[in-house]
């Protein structure tokens, strides 16, 4: 390959997507020059210290064990990560898809009672990539403690939100190895010369990694704003989806993003969503580096250091979400419109997101009726549907119900009410029958006076009680005489195709294959 | 270019006013009409579900309890219906040659049934063409007309009964 | 209150404290001195971690009658890679190196541990530890100081070798007592049950320590132990030690059993 052409294309950010099969033909040291290490890297990026940091103390620690299947699944994720990494750096990559996969799968099916230290399972990996381990450990700690806070039944929603914010501040101020909360351009990060090497060569184990990341992202909307009963019942569905389907998918175009599977959490905590997505992308980059045959071992060490630096908070100091001094490049902090907790996806413009199996959409719009979702201080009012591995925010309860009816399998409906602390969480079985996930949803009352979806957030609503319904109706003459629907009555209904729905079209083809006309505004 | 989302918001504001007035005037009873709004990929073959046109229906729907799942063709729906995911009674609404009049295929107690005279075309070809190669018809005449209209893809097509079509669609990945 | 009463009260208090606290797990594969064997690894506890460890050790000294040692230690990770510790080691009955069998509160120890570097593919992890033992034991004089150098290195997989080198200085050494006492411990750790289970570590050690009394020979001991994670917050440990060889008049335990509990919070 012409080297100058290679470098020129690499600078464009999309080459690796096309060129990976060709590049894999190079032997170690004979391939193209890997990206150069930035000059003047901070000393701490090469520190020789251990730097273990303990959990922030709080009564919520280990609350995840109240949702025991989730705790066990997460314990197994720790093992799975470490086993794969250890085999990758001890010359056993050739058996990753067979023996390693089987060994990990057995742990996933028989998860350990306690989360083991990844360092002792992936001992060689930890000794070789100690700083990376520090980055992973502290971010995983943030992951874990955030889950504990959200799972703690004795805290109010406000207390939980405040504690999650505090944990984030502890995370970013304790060690210099904090990952940036800015939305990074995923296309750039996944457009390195080595990108996709792992996915292409080890689809089954890559599927496991992306399955873990699906769980580690999806768990937040399972927990956020829900009481313990709801969390436990919702996780019955989500855990089943994870263990049956998400772990073994080899057809994903891209790693799962927090905003895709926990949009409510990502909308409320965009910094955390971005940290987690950037962390998961760092995992992917490291995987790719380790299995890229044209990198020497020394080059792999350097590229891992570079990959760490690409996502460090310190590397992006002074920038704000939305800045874009290098559009399409490293310093591109634009996010998908309507979702500040999601960086730009590969070959996509801010206003159109391609979701596998669902097509093009705008994250700020209801996917059922295409109407804008509430934003800012009102963002909590968005409802949500979880089914078939995705979670979508929708504009009204009708949209949530009907969208779940149009999707195969079990579903979860998160319906907001007039009380931000009391959503109604409903479970749909695979035939579409709805049941409340906790007692508090049993008394929910619905208004549904179907009309144009331009105002569906008005005429389709859920209330915590008949009194709340009556108060709403009394204040609005247009709803005088409206019937207060019980859950059973409301669950029997089906709405019409929303008059406002329009299908968003993006460039033809699949944007994740690097062939779409990325970066352009996408219209109807 | 002006943001599409912004344009939609302006549109939404105008529609909101109209809708509120409409809501005051009439309380619309929910109708059990087909309601697939968002357009998705076929759960079975993963290709896009082809939308209905003014001239012809294309969307195949599988009703399972209160669920109504759209498939790309009758082959996909019949295939998925025979997986463990759908163990009980169900109904498949397969578009026919008549716009707005789908063929209603039912499975009750494990037995399949369809209206008398129902025939299917079922020809293995690239699944990109499944709208042509797998369809339901209310009569032999309609089947013949469809074959005549697609002489290349359906050159040797024979009409299939429901039983034959169900057998043909026994779960296998579409080509 | 007599010494025995005070010790039991203390043990009861710390036990209650340990079980009542919402604590975090001490990793079963993170080895601290005395839990259950003499050696420790080169890792400090985590920054901001608090840990409490206590144990009971029935022993059969070679030149005395049966006795029981208790131990309780509090650790706090006051800085990155560093921790501070306070420990108590009361005992009842016979103990090695003395004919005194009366209950003894023992010396209170204050220590600082610092991990110098993490282990890499080429370099072991190194740590230093300094302890001062206050003269709180029956008939003790002066402050005993101990410096310990620690190295930990991976052998294969997750098997690790640990070397502890001690230099103890006794500022109040009396007639017939040595003011400098060296010691050496070689430890080996290996997680047990991998890849099916991840909650258990096996330990073994060979130790050598100089005699504390003038004219007393050194003792060579061996030990075998296990650390078992029992819940997310705590680890139980069990060990058996025996001083299998020693010079003339060496302070030796024929057998010593150790059972301990560690928790972090």
Q: What does this 3D model show about the protein?
A:
- The complex is a heterotrimer of chains A (524), B (175) and C (265).
- By secondary structure, chain A is of the alpha+beta class.
- Chain A folds into 2 domains: 281 residues, no CATH class; 114 residues, Beta-Lactamase, CATH 3.30.450.
- Chain A is built from 21 helices and 11 strands.
- A 5-stranded antiparallel β-sheet of chain A has the order 6-5-7-8-9, with helices on both faces. In chain A, strands 1-2 form a two-stranded antiparallel sheet.
- Chain A is globular.
- Chain A starts with a helix and ends in a 33-residue tail after the last helix.
- In chain B, a hairpin with an 8-residue loop joins strand 3 and strand 4.
- Chain B is α+β, with helices and mostly antiparallel strands.
- Chain B is built from 5 helices and 7 strands.
- Chain B has a domain of 109 residues: Beta-Lactamase.
- Chain C is mainly beta and 265 residues long.
- In chain C, strands 1-2-3-5-6-7-8-9-10-11-12-13 form a 12-stranded antiparallel beta barrel.
- In chain C, strand 5 and strand 6 form a beta hairpin.
- The longest helix of chain C has 18 residues.
- Chain C starts with a helix and ends with a strand.
- In chain C, 45% of the residues are buried.
- Chains in contact: A-B, A-C.
């Amino acid at each position: 390959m012409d080297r100058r052409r290679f470098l020129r294309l690499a600078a464009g950010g999309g080459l690796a997507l096309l060129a990976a099969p060709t590049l894999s033909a190079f032997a170690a040291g004979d391939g193209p020059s890997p990206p150069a290490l930035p000059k003047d890297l901070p000393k701490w990026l090469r520190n020789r210290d251990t730097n273990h940091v303990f959990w922030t103390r709080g009564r919520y620690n280990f609350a995840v064990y109240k949702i025991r299947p989730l705790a066990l699944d997460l314990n197994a994720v720790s093992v799975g990560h470490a086993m794969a990494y250890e085999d990758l750096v001890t010359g056993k990559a050739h058996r990753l898809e067979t023996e390693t996969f089987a060994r990990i799968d057995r742990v996933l099916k028989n998860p350990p009672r306690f989360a083991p230290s990844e360092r002792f399972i992936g001992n060689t990996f930890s000794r070789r990539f100690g700083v990376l381990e520090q980055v992973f450990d502290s971010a995983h700690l943030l992951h874990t403690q955030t889950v504990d806070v959200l799972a703690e039944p004795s805290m109010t929603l406000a207390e939980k939100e405040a504690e999650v914010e505090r944990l984030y501040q502890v995370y970013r101020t304790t060690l210099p190895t904090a990952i940036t909360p800015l939305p990074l351009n995923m296309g750039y990060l996944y457009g390195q010369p080595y990108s996709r090497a792992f996915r292409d060569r080890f689809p089954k184990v890559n599927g496991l990694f992306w399955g873990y990341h699906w769980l580690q992202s999806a768990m937040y909307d399972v927990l956020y704003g829900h009481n313990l009963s709801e969390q436990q019942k919702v996780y019955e569905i989500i855990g089943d989806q994870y263990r049956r389907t998400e772990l073994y998918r080899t057809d994903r175009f891209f790693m799962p993003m927090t905003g895709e599977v926990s949009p409510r959490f990502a909308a409320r905590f965009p910094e955390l969503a971005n940290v987690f997505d950037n962390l998961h992308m760092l995992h992917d980059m490291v995987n790719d580096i380790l299995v890229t045959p044209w990198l020497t071992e020394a080059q792999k060490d350097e590229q891992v250091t570079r990959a760490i630096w690409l996502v460090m908070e310190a590397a992006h100091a002074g920038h704000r979400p939305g800045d874009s001094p290098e559009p399409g490049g490293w310093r591109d902090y634009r996010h998908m419109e309507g979702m500040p907790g999601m960086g730009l996806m590969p070959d996509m413009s801010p206003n159109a997101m391609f979701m596998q199996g669902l097509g093009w959409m705008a994250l700020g719009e209801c996917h059922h009726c295409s109407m804008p979702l509430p934003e800012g201080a009102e963002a909590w009012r968005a409802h949500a549907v979880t089914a078939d591995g995705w979670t979508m925010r929708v504009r009204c309860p009708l949209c949530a119900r009907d969208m779940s009816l149009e999707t195969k399998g079990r579903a979860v409906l998160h319906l907001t009410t007039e009380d931000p602390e009391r959503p109604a969480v409903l479970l749909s079985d695979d035939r579409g029958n709805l049941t409340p996930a906790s007692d508090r949803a049993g008394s929910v009352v619905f208004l549904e006076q179907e009309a144009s979806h331009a105002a569906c957030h008005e005429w389709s609503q859920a209330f915590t009680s008949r009194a709340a319904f009556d108060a709403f109706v009394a204040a609005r003459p247009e709803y005088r005489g409206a019937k207060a629907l019980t859950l059973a009555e409301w669950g029997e209904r089906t709405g019409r195709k929303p008059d406002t729905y329009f299908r968003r079209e993006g460039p033809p083809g699949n944007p994740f294959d690097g062939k779409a006309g990325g970066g352009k505004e996408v219209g109807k | 270019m002006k943001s599409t989302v912004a344009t939609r918001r302006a549109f939404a504001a105008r529609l909101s006013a109209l809708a509120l007035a409409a809501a005051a005037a009439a309380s619309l009873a929910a109708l059990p009409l087909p309601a697939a709004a968002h357009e998705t990929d076929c759960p079975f073959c993963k290709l896009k579900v082809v939308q209905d046109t003014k001239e012809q229906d294309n969307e195949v729907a599988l009703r399972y309890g209160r669920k109504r799942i759209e498939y790309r063709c009758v082959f996909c729906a019949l295939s998925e219906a025979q997986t463990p995911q759908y163990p009980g009674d169900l109904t498949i609404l397969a578009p026919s040659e008549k716009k707005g009049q789908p063929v209603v295929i039912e499975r009750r107690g494990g037995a399949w049934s369809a209206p008398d005279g129902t025939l299917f075309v079922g020809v293995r070809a690239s699944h990109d063409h499944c709208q042509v190669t797998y369809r339901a018809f209310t009569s032999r005449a309609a089947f013949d007309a469809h074959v005549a209209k697609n002489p290349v893809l359906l050159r040797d097509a024979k009409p299939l009964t429901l039983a034959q079509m169900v057998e043909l669609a026994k779960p296998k990945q579409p080509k | 209150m007599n010494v025995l009463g005070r010790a039991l009260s203390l043990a009861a208090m710390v036990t209650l404290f340990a079980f009542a606290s919402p604590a975090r797990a001490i990793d079963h594969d993170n080895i601290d001195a005395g839990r259950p064997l003499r050696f420790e690894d080169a890792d400090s506890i985590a920054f901001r971690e608090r840990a409490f460890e206590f144990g009971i050790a029935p022993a059969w000294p070679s030149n005395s009658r049966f006795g029981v040692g208790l131990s309780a230690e509090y650790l706090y990770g006051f800085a990155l890679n560093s921790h501070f510790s306070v420990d108590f080691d009361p005992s009842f009955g016979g103990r090695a190196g003395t004919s005194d069998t009366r209950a003894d509160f023992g010396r209170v120890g204050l220590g600082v541990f610092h991990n110098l570097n993490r282990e890499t593919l080429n370099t072991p992890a190194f740590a230093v530890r300094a302890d001062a033992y206050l003269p709180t034991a029956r008939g003790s004089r002066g402050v005993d100081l101990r410096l310990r150098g620690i190295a930990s290195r991976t052998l294969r997989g997750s098997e690790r070798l640990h070397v502890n080198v001690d230099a103890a200085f006794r500022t109040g050494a009396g007639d017939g007592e040595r003011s400098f006492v060296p010691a050496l411990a070689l430890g080996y750790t290996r997680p047990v049950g991998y890849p099916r289970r991840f909650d258990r570590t096996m330990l073994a050690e060979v130790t050598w320590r100089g005699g504390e009394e003038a004219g007393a020979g050194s003792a060579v001991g061996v030990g075998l132990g296990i650390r078992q994670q029992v819940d997310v917050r705590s680890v139980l440990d069990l060990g058996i030690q025996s001083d299998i060889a020693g010079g003339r008049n060496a302070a030796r335990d024929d057998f010593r059993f150790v059972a301990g509990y560690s928790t972090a919070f």
